[in-house]
Design goal:
Layout: H1 2-6, H2 9-44, H3 46-57, E1 58-63, E2 70-71, E3 77-89, H4 97-108, H5 112-123, E4 132-135, H6 140-148, E5 156-165, H7 173-176, E6 179-181, H8 184-191, H9 194-199, E7 205-207, H10 210-214, H11 216-220, E8 224-230, E9 236-243, E10 251-253, H12 257-266, E11 272-278, E12 284-290, H13 296-299, H14 304-311, H15 321-324, H16 334-343, E13 353-355, E14 358-359, E15 368-369, E16 377-379, H17 381-386, H18 390-400, H19 402-410, H20 433-440, H21 446-452, H22 463-474, E17 485-487, H23 509-523, E18 541-547, E19 570-577, E20 584-590, H24 600-615
Parallel strand pairs: 2-10
Antiparallel strand pairs: 1-8, 2-3, 3-4, 3-5, 6-7, 8-9, 10-17, 11-12, 11-20, 13-16, 14-15, 18-19, 19-20
Helix pairs in contact: 12-24, 16-18, 16-19, 16-23, 18-21
């Protein structure tokens, strides 16, 4: 009875209806918001999400172009591309990177070197979802193991690519250089230019040294692309569209593989360099530095062990002596100085002096010795060249003076890099009065000129510079710029040589007389390279040189046996042939080789005999 008295069913029903109405309104509002949101996403934002969906489903992958090939003058292949398969990871698609690498290690073996290089590449600036190589040069068995287990390896793939290969190994390492993986500094430079960034979007390699670096723009080619459909795991389902890349352009160099191999053979066991130039074209036939290295080691990444072995080798196999080795030219400079002396009228060809074996400046107690202690007796210009008389050039250089001597030598390219397509070459050192004032804050003394007269003192030249100057001499002062490139669709026939003019002598007969003097260096009875007569197949004009490595006191005599091998004199030789119509000019240096007539000169003669004996065909 009491329960019935206190219940108000009307009020309860009214309250229920009110709450149901409020709840209905809330539900309706929520449905309206949901409907609006669905409409907004599906109608208003349709294009946006369609593009996002397409981008997730459709990928545009760059296709790296095939790198151009490099050939020698006879069509022999110097640099090629060989197929190789690499194991790659896309870090953004790998859930547990460390666990995945451990799994792959157990599957096919991942060395510590591979892991170290992978971590280093991960730290480079790279594009999102760009594959990173974990291991190069997979075997067929390795590829099969990875592909069978691919379902367990999201983000892991096997990528086929063409890898640069140098079939002749260390024979052309210094002149061709090599390609290697793009490093962080190079990537930053590439990214700074939008066009370059686009063209290298699929490339992992770039020219590092030598011809590979100089002609990178021509060899690289133009990138292509592939539009592919992919699933949610990033696997490619099919190719929707493809634009093939444009392969890099092939180039042909003046280099002669046979002569390069011959230079390597002749330099076996020695440190030094050989440079040979075709006189009429300026083509560099041989540019070899010994010892050398295998450039194939650097293409996919050299190990620390291998690199440290090369870097710490006392013979410096990584050092390109042909273009970066700076040596006193010694007596090989005498023919160039001699031309200046006779052409400016300092001495005539008949003018003679008496050589007692020493030279002394006025009011100076220092004695400048000749290499021949007892002297050469009465000496004119021809005899001074043939027998390499130091005293004659001491005297003549002092009377000519550095202010005339240095500019005259500069006309032959000393003190500058004149090669067309070798931009890593050092310029040597052509001293002058102004140079010494700026460099050493000191005056130029007469004793400096004495030393310059025999190619010593401050004077330094690279083998490439010596070969270049010899080619200009052989061409009677006409400049033809030395170059590697021989055939390309935009190589001009006549390459300008900047601001250096052809050498105009006051008397052109001086060329012939100097040629004859240099011929007698080999053919003469007392010539310093007369030992070549036994194998003299063609008339050769040449000049020997012996550059001191360590100084000896004024009254001391050079004692080879008392010196360590690396402290002995360097042997240099320049030559061109045949004398009446020069076709080839060379410079050879054998470090610590001492007698140029016994070490450097025979190497040059072997190359000359080979070239003129039929190698041109």
């Amino acid at each position: 009875m009491w329960e019935h008295a206190f219940r108000n069913k009307t009020a309860e029903l009214s309250l229920f209806r009110q709450r149901a109405a409020v709840l209905g309104i809330i539900v309706l509002l929520l449905l309206m918001v949901l409907g609006w949101r669905m409409g907004h996403l599906q109608i208003t934002l349709y294009d946006t999400y369609k593009n996002l969906s397409e981008n997730n489903r459709i990928k545009i992958n760059p296709i790296a172009p095939k790198r151009g090939l490099i050939f020698d003058r006879n069509g022999e292949l110097l640099a090629e591309n060989t197929p190789s398969y690499s194991l790659t990871l896309v870090p953004e698609r790998v859930e547990d990177l460390e666990a995945t690498i451990d799994y792959l290690d157990n599957l096919i073996g991942i060395s510590e070197r591979n892991k170290e290089q992978f971590n280093r590449r991960m730290n480079y600036r790279r594009r999102p979802y760009e594959p990173v190589v974990l291991r190069h040069r997979l075997s067929e068995e390795d590829i099969a193991r990875v592909l069978v287990n691919r379902v367990y390896l999201p983000g892991v793939d096997v990528k086929g690519e063409l890898v640069r290969s140098y079939p002749q190994g260390d024979t052309f390492a210094h002149v061709l250089g090599y390609v290697g993986r793009i490093n962080q500094r190079e990537q930053h430079k590439i990214d700074s230019d939008p066009e370059t960034r686009k063209n290298y979007s699929g490339s992992q390699y770039i020219g590092k040294l030598g011809a590979e670096k100089f002609y990178e723009d021509r060899l690289h080619g133009q990138v292509g692309y592939q539009k592919v459909e992919a699933n949610a795991r990033g696997r490619t389902l099919g190719i929707l569209e493809q634009q093939n890349p444009s392969r890099g352009e092939d180039i042909t160099l003046h280099l002669d593989s046979r002569m390069q191999r011959l230079a390597k053979q002749e330099m076996e066991g020695r440190r030094g360099a050989v440079v040979a130039i075709e006189v009429k074209t300026g083509g560099i036939l041989t540019l070899y530095s010994n010892p050398s290295f295998d450039p194939n080691l650097f293409v996919t990444g050299i190990s620390h062990t291998d690199y440290n072995s090369l870097r710490d080798d006392p013979d410096l196999p990584l050092f390109n002596r042909a273009i970066r080795g700076r040596y006193p030219p010694a007596s090989t400079l005498k023919p160039f100085i001699g031309l200046g002396i006779v052409d400016t009228g300092i001495n005539s060809w008949k003018h003679a002096i008496n050589d007692p074996g020493w030279f002394q400046l006025p009011n100076d107690n220092r004695i400048y010795r000749d290499w021949k202690r007892q002297g050469h007796g009465k000496v004119n210009m021809e005899k001074a060249i043939v027998e390499s008389c130091d005293v004659y050039f001491y005297d003549a250089a002092v009377r000519m003076g550095v202010d005339h001597l240095s500019p005259f030598l500069g006309q032959f390219g000393f003190g500058r890099n004149m090669a067309l397509d070798i931009n890593d070459a050092l310029s040597g050192l052509l001293p002058s009065r102004d140079w010494k004032r700026q460099k050493h804050k000191s005056y130029w003394y007469a004793g400096d000129t004495v030393n310059l007269g025999i190619g010593q003192g401050f004077m330094l030249a690279t083998p490439l510079q010596l070969a270049t100057a010899t080619a200009v001499m052989a061409n009677r002062g006409k400049w033809v710029v030395p170059r590697l490139i021989a055939a390309h669709n935009d190589v001009p026939e006549d390459v300008p040589h900047g601001d250096i003019p052809d050498i105009q002598l006051n008397d052109d007969d001086n060329w012939d007389k100097m040629f004859e003097s240099m011929r007698k260096v080999i053919a003469g009875h007392n010539g310093t390279a007369r030992g070549l007569q036994a194998r003299l197949e063609f008339p050769i004009a040449g000049k020997t040189g012996t550059a001191q490595v360590v100084g000896i006191k004024q009254d001391e005599k050079y004692d080879s046996a008392a010196l360590k091998e690396r402290l002995r004199d360097h042997a240099l030789f320049i030559a061109f042939a045949p004398v009446d119509d020069p076709q080839i000019a060379l410079a050879v240096i054998v470090e610590n080789g001492e007698s140029a007539g016994r070490t450097a000169a025979p190497i040059a003669q072997t190359l000359i005999n080979f070239y003129l004996g039929g190698a041109q065909g």
